[in-house]
Design brief:
Elements: E1 13-15, E2 22-25, E3 31-33, H1 39-48, H2 50-63, H3 68-73, H4 75-84, H5 90-108, H6 121-136, H7 147-156, H8 165-187, E4 193-202, E5 207-218, E6 221-232, H9 238-251, E7 259-264, H10 268-278, E8 282-284, H11 286-300, H12 302-320, H13 322-331, H14 346-358, H15 360-367, H16 379-404, H17 413-424, H18 432-449, H19 456-463, H20 476-508, H21 518-546, H22 556-563, H23 568-578, H24 585-600, E9 614-617, E10 624-627, E11 643-645, H25 649-655, H26 657-661
Parallel strand pairs: 4-7, 7-8, 9-11
Antiparallel strand pairs: 1-2, 2-3, 4-5, 5-6, 9-10
């Protein structure tokens, strides 16, 4: 009797010492009970590691002599046996089981007519399409249990069996695990990262969350990821926030030395947390500072606050009166409506005043017909509001500029402040209230941004941006200090290269005869290299500063890519500073999206029980980036569970399906 052949499934398992009936999966390190056969081992590979299951099938098919007619004849019976009976010859059972599953999927897409049966890969495409729909449309996993959705699938594919919520969750978990592993490997090759951090409180469930995003350059692009959104169960102390930051860096294998800056708001606990975790790398969010300038300026003008209150009262009255709202809607051609103020966003106040000024004639005609309506503004008050809009317009444009950019780099901060001042200072205003506001705004800008040019990182980033260079510096001392700092950085880079070359030269050379003048020759060589490096630094920096500036709409990373050969030392430093983000807006956008999901999906009594994550794909064969959302928000049946945000679905389907299944 020939010896029994060992199943090829054991290539994916290691036997556990001391446990004869268990084996450890090499792919996920999970312990599986074998019970003297390989049925459970095959089932785990088939259900969890589909790519490995196909590889085993291919390998078994090479050594299998089973007749194809016999396979087709016994497919159903073998499938049943594989599910309920033990098997010691698993390779052939795996082959037959896969074909049986493929037949079921193919049958499910049959129509009443003569529609060709889709091939086996249709199953994988349907899985990916289902996950994509859930993630893209922010749908809960329980959609597969909804009666309407099940009826739709029954009409489209009568024989297709929808997966359960548990199965769907497992599919997404597998994809997330694979993508996060790939991303961690790619993230380890990034030299410089900028973090943005923000805290958000969800008012409906009274929970607070800490969001952390990372930004870095890859080639000519600036990419962004969300490392995590963590529910904060403790006080928001600087020590607790610093601990969460370090924990996140450890989780994603990020070296703290690679973090060039951290952008947050101006809260004291945030500033101290950054100092505790990374040292002096904190950068105040420019968008938050602009918001403070505008809000504080308007708060200091008492008469202006009274005028804005009168406008807000009129807006509120229109919102509460259906008759007045209908009349306003009919009187405007595009159904333009009045805008309500959002307390946390100063520019919403600007838009309230602007829209009210546009509709003042129509609003006045409606208000005078109702006794209970609030009093309309006088002509002089409307004139004051018009002048106030002139003063606030540059700040609103700056805010819009910051929020419009997907990634607002730190190199644009100093130029934008300079342009802001050039717009506000020359204004000739007649209204005394507008003049007061103008004066207060200039004082606030000087108070909060007066020494912005002396912030070394911002000054270097501005100088090394080919679109700006030294044009927007008003402090010549700050400008010259930044240029000197750039020279120091270039010199340090060259010295590191010299040390490395010297050490390599010394290690390559065999030991010669003793010479008393060896050290003298080394000093001469070092002096020559130092003089040469100083000349190279002066030449590169002079060539760059004398060259014409780039156009405003150009990508500075693309410009530096063209200058890389001519200015190699300067290129390395420029790339580091030009990929630094100047605001914490990306982390704020994360919470804006979260709030939108809350509005779209009402709270239920079901609670999210797992970590959440959003995984996206950037381009073909480019970096995978992971948006991890860890929360236990009571969203509609765990909305913030692991989901995939397929930014470019077609590329994902064609190029990444095998990687995801691995």
């Amino acid at each position: 009797m020939a010896p029994s052949k060992k199943s090829c499934v054991w290539k994916s398992y290691d036997k556990i010492e001391g446990a004869s009936n268990s084996a450890k999966c090499k792919l996920c390190q999970k312990s599986i009970k074998s019970c003297g056969n390989t049925t459970n081992l095959i089932g785990h590979i088939k259900n969890v590691h589909k790519a490995a299951f196909r590889e085993l099938n291919n390998e078994s098919s090479k050594n299998s002599n089973i007749d194809s007619n016999t396979i087709n004849k016994n497919t159903q019976s073998v499938t049943t046996v594989a599910d309920v009976q033990p098997s010691t010859s698993s390779a052939d059972v795996m082959k037959l089981t896969e074909e049986a599953d493929a037949d079921k999927i193919s049958d499910s897409f049959k129509d009443e007519g003569n529609v060709p049966v889709p091939p086996v890969p249709k199953r994988q495409k349907s899985i990916i399409a289902l996950i994509y729909m859930i993630c893209k449309d922010n749908q809960p996993f329980t959609i597969v249990e909804n009666e309407g959705f099940r009826n739709l699938i029954k009409v489209i594919a009568p024989h297709y069996k929808l997966p359960s919520k548990t199965t769907l969750t497992r599919w997404v978990d597998d994809k997330y695990a694979a993508l996060s592993t790939v991303f961690k490997e790619k993230l380890s090759n990034i030299e410089n990262l900028t973090l943005t951090i923000d805290m958000w409180s969800e008012t409906m469930s009274m929970r607070s969350f800490l969001g952390i995003t990372a930004h870095f350059g890859v080639g000519n692009e600036l990419l962004s990821i969300t490392l995590g959104v963590y529910q904060s169960n403790e006080r928001h102390t600087s020590e607790y926030i610093a601990e969460m930051l370090l924990k996140t860096c450890t989780e994603w294998a990020i070296d703290r030395d690679k973090i060039s800056s951290v952008a947050t708001d101006n809260a004291a606990n945030m500033v101290k947390a950054i100092d505790l975790a990374f040292g002096k790398k904190h950068f105040p969010c420019f968008a938050h500072t602009l918001n403070l300038v505008a809000q504080n300026s308007m708060q200091q003008c008492t008469e202006l606050r009274s005028l804005i209150t009168k406008v807000k009262d009129i807006v509120t009255w229109f919102k509460q009166s259906n008759i007045a709202s209908n009349e306003l809607r009919k009187a405007t051609q595009k159904e333009t409506k009045l805008i309500e103020e959002v307390p946390t966003r100063w520019n919403s106040t600007y838009h309230v005043i602007e829209r009210f000024s546009e509709l003042r004639t129509i609003v006045n005609d409606i208000i005078i017909r109702y006794k209970n309506a609030p009093p309309m503004l006088t002509a002089s008050e409307l004139s004051i509001l018009s002048s106030v809009l002139q003063v606030l317009r540059p700040i609103e444009a700056a805010t819009k500029e910051v929020l419009a950019d997907k990634y607002y780099t730190s190199s644009k901060v100093i130029p934008l402040i300079h342009c802001l001042l050039l717009k506000i200072k020359p204004l000739k205003l007649e209204e005394s209230l507008a003049k007061e506001l103008q004066s207060v705004i200039l004082k606030e800008i000087d108070k909060r941004m007066g020494v912005i040019e002396r912030v070394t990182s911002l000054a270097i980033a501005t100088i090394l941006d080919p679109r700006f260079k030294k044009m927007h510096f008003t402090d010549p001392i700050a400008c010259s200090s930044a240029v000197a700092k750039v020279k120091e950085l270039m010199k340090a880079t060259i010295q590191n290269e010299v040390v490395e070359s010297d050490s390599s030269d010394h290690s390559d050379k065999p030991e010669d005869n003793f010479s008393l003048w060896d050290d003298h020759h080394k000093l001469v060589h070092k002096s020559w290299k130092t003089a040469k490096s100083d000349d190279a630094i002066s030449d590169e920096l002079s060539i760059y500063l004398r060259s014409p500036v780039g156009r405003l709409n150009e990508n500075p990373l693309e410009i530096w890519n063209d200058l890389k050969i001519q200015l190699p030392k300067l290129h390395t430093i420029a790339y580091k500073y030009l990929t630094m983000v100047g605001t914490s807006v990306p982390s704020k956008r994360l919470f804006s999206k979260a709030a939108q999901i809350f509005l779209e999906h009402p709270l239920t009594h079901k609670r999210a029980d797992n970590d959440s994550a959003v995984v996206g794909v950037i381009g073909n064969q480019k970096l995978w980036f992971v948006w991890s959302v860890r929360s236990s928000i009571q969203l509609r049946d765990a909305m913030f569970k692991k989901v995939l945000d397929f930014e470019k679905t077609s590329m994902f389907l064609t190029d990444a399906s095998e990687n995801i299944d691995a």
